[in-house]
Amino acid sequence: MAIQHLLTSPGNGNTVLILDYGSQYTHLITRRIRQLSVFSLVVSGTSSLATITQHNPRLIVLSGGPHSVHALDAPSFPDGFLEYVEENGVFVLGICYGMQLLVQKLGGVVNVGEDQEYGKMEIVVEKEDGLFGMKEIGGSQTVWMSHGDEAVTLPDGFQVVAKSLQGTVAAIENREKRFYGLQYHPEVTHSIRGMETLRHFLFDICGLNPDWKMQDVLEEEMKIIKDMVGQDDHVICALSGGVDSTVAATLVHNAIGDRLHCVFVDNGLLRYKERDRVMSTFESDLHLPVTCIDASEQFLGKLKGVTDPEKKRKIIGKEFICIFDGFAQELENKLGKRPQYLVQGTLYPDVIESCPPPGSGKSHSHTIKSHHNVGGLPKDMKLKLIEPLKLLFKDEVRQLGGILNVPTAFLKRHPFPGPGLAVRVLGDVTEGNALEILRQVDEIFIQAIKDEGIYDSIWQAFAVFLPIQTVGVQGDQRTHSHAVTLRAITSQDGMTADWYYFEHKFLDNVVRKICNSVRGVNRVCLDITSKPPATVEWE
Ligand SMILES: Nc1ncnc2c1ncn2[C@@H]1O[C@H](COP(=O)(O)OP(=O)(O)OP(=O)(O)O)[C@@H](O)[C@H]1O
Ligand SMILES: O=c1[nH]c(=O)c2[nH+]cn([C@@H]3O[C@H](COP(=O)(O)O)[C@@H](O)[C@H]3O)c2[nH]1
Ligand SMILES: NC(=O)CC[C@H](N)C(=O)O
Ligand SMILES: [Mg+2]
């Protein structure tokens, strides 16, 4: 059961609400708006009117999406939506599918275009002082498009603001009714003036205030936690040593002090010497008391013979909760009162990619993978969740951690997923000595990255164990040993990523070191796939 946080919207009429129709870029719209210091959040595109109005938004953005407005199951806003926005002076911006939906619902016509527009396109501004501001008339700009349908007849009261060089309507507005539409995606960096356009739209057109600050998030969250947790209630925090749970723990500790009980689980899927390293840094740098539970046999026992990535993730999510329940029992025996709450360092991307909970705003998108702390949770769990970072992206969490004086060494750590090496040993993780081989390879790779001084330029780096054997020749002997892969990426938020361009000499040294010192490995590959099409982890 999840606790609702005030962060879900201040409800002060200075919020941007995004109705999600399943676009790959919905989260980016949120990010861009928050980057402009305006609070924004996503709800499902088919949310009820009550859900929408409770946030008291000043602007509602209708996102893009994979559907065509002509499809029988095309998602749409609820009955009464258009009346609500008109009566309350709410601005509406449709992006791509969102614009097509707005056009169709207001009586215009959307057709399947003769040509589709995917990728970089040029648009030309045709209307003075429109969505793009005063000076833009006749100006052209490069934008990112991804659509097949197009608006061919605009509803009454609308004007064309810009067209693509192919003649497709690219921007529209009905100033009087506060309806706006963009056929392209201003939220992606390839739309080179997208941020400028959003800034002009939010502040000059919608009159929003740039008043959302990380300090406010901190104060609001502390207040909610203090109000929610009773005076003598105790709380458990799942602490992994990673950025997110460390920041979450520090925040909750500031709110309730020593009634917070942190627990670090050794699930047998940790990296080389991780348990000792994490426990000693908790003690020396964080000054938070942490209980370490060794549950490696329990996790590995449950994972034996399991090869399906989603099954592995669900097993791990369930086992984590099992351990936390056991810890709650121990505390009850000691303190005479059972903790009711569990703090997790869940982030927005964990929720976006996980199994979408109903009404979460993701019901029109695909489940990419079940993050153990969201989609992997058992349905019948009793502990109530406190997830103060649930609507934040990683870089926002790092910023919050800075305000909380969390040591930089913690904030700069590369992310490490809760399911750990289970999603980096492909197939059965208990097979042979796969985990041990992977730990050694990973350690050599990460140490070399640190020695080279490039750790902070990389978002995440790790090794993957491949369950295949290849033929090699080592010391004049034929070997039939395992292949491993190295992966290093750059990213802003883990939602999209590019591979890191290493110097050849660096790679040459690392590969030699791995093959010379790790028994059982005779081949090293480098993963140079971006996300998309791949994901960061291999499973
Ligand atoms: N070994 C562990 N012991 C206890 N809790 C864990 C462990 N691994 C993960 N968790 C819980 O699951 C949450 C999600 O894990 P995730 O890896 O996304 O975050 P993190 O470890 O805090 O940060 P990072 O993404 O930087 O690794 C954590 O915030 C934490 O609450
Ligand atoms: O705590 C976590 N529990 C999980 O189940 C999980 N799966 C992926 N990740 C991390 O999320 C980021 C994006 O990873 P993917 O592109 O593989 O989805 C990367 O940083 C991954 O390491 C997880 N973190
Ligand atoms: N990216 C989008 O929102 C696409 C909208 C619609 N599916 C089209 O192809 O036109
Ligand atoms: Mg982690």
Kindly list the characteristics that best describe this protein.
539 residues; alpha/beta; Rossmann fold; nine-stranded mixed sheet; disordered N terminus; binds adenosine-5'-triphosphate; binds xanthosine-5'-monophosphate; binds glutamine; binds magnesium ion
**What is the residue-mean pLDDT, rounded to a whole number?**
91
Alpha-beta classification: alpha/beta
Identify low-pLDDT runs. Answer: 1-7, 357-362
Name the overall outline.
globular
* Helix coverage percent: 25-40%
Counting DSSP H or I runs of 4 or more residues, the number of helices is 15
Query: Which CATH architecture of the largest domain is right?
Result: 3-Layer(aba) Sandwich
CATH-derived topology of the largest domain: Rossmann fold
GO molecular function: ATP binding; GMP synthase activity
InterPro entries: Class_I_gatase-like, GATASE, GMP_synth_C, GMP_synth_GATase, GMP_synthase, GMPS_ATP_PPase_dom, Rossmann-like_a/b/a_fold
Binding site for ATP: 240-246
Domain GMPS ATP-PPase: 212-413
Please provide a written account of the structure.
ATP binds at residues 240-246. One of its GO terms (biological process) is GMP biosynthetic process. With 539 residues, the chain is an alpha/beta fold. It folds into three domains: 8-205, Rossmann fold, CATH 3.40.50.880; 214-411, HUPs (Rossmann fold, 3-Layer(aba) Sandwich), CATH 3.40.50; 424-526, GMP Synthetase, Chain A, domain 3 (2-Layer Sandwich), CATH 3.30.300. It has 15 helices and 18 strands. It has helices spanning 26-35, 49-54, 81-88, 97-105, 194-205, 214-228, 243-256, 274-286, 296-303, 309-335, 348-353, 394-403, 408-411, 434-451, 504-517, and strands spanning 15-20, 39-44, 57-62, 91-95, 109-125, 140-153, 159-164, 169-174, 179-182, 235-238, 260-266, 290-294, 341-343, 384-386, 460-474, 477-491, 497-499, 521-526. β10 (235-238), α7 and β11 form a beta-alpha-beta unit. α6 packs across α12. The longest helix is centred in the middle third of the chain and has 27 residues, at 309-335. It is globular and about 75 Å long. It starts with 14 loop residues before the first strand and ends in a 13-residue tail after the last strand. The relative contact order is 0.10. The site of xanthosine-5'-monophosphate (XMP) has 16 residues, from loops.
